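can u pls check wat happens w/ coenzyme A
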Amino acid sequence: MAIENALERFPRDVKTKAGLTVRLQPLTKTDHAAFHEFFSAMQPKELMYLKHRVTDPEVLRKWCENIDLGHNCPLLAWHDGKVVGVCTLHQALGGWKRHIGRLSAHVRPDFRNQGIARLLTGEVVEIARQCGLERLLAEFLGEQEQAMKVCALQGFEELYRLDDFVKDMQAISHNYVVMGLHLITDEEYAGMG
Ligand SMILES: CC(C)(COP(=O)(O)OP(=O)(O)OC[C@H]1O[C@@H](n2cnc3c(N)ncnc32)[C@H](O)[C@@H]1OP(=O)(O)O)[C@@H](O)C(=O)NCCC(=O)NCCS
């Protein structure tokens, strides 16, 4: 299924486990200021795996001008006019990793522990499944235990852990952890009857 079809169920208002209502919607052209404000609320270390300098408003403006949801699909959670969380599905769209997606999630510090990441990751796993991806990966610093827990709740398992493998902005080494989820595609479900 094309990503556009997988996204047909959005925008949608959903309640988190803690009872907070959020609107789920893929990134749109007009979201750059709100998205910049969201990333500005994060600690730099928490943005380490993002490949762009998301604290620069110009970077976010360009992102929003050139949205390619088939390649990078950020699903945003909105509350009270603010972006409070994002979970992005990254796809390679060709090559030997074309069946493997990557997921990353971030929640505004003042909106954590209310079930936003759990909700967003569940939705993105479903989008990945509908796109026909077979596997999902997620990368972490060794100390991002909370984020690993969020992925474990979706069925992700640790694939490998490399000690002192990555470095943060202060050149301090951290363990690198990769978790993976084997998705069952629609075709496989059909064959199970
Ligand atoms: C990791 C992160 C996305 C979690 O967001 P969140 O919205 O607070 O997470 P949720 O409220 O959905 O919590 C989901 C689960 O995580 C675990 N969890 C959440 N907060 C926790 C805490 N403070 N301590 C222990 N476990 C916790 C729980 O198992 C929880 O499920 P439960 O409430 O049913 O027990 C958020 O802390 C974040 O943005 N961190 C910085 C960025 C990052 O590390 N991203 C990961 C890179 S992929």
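The mean pLDDT is 93.
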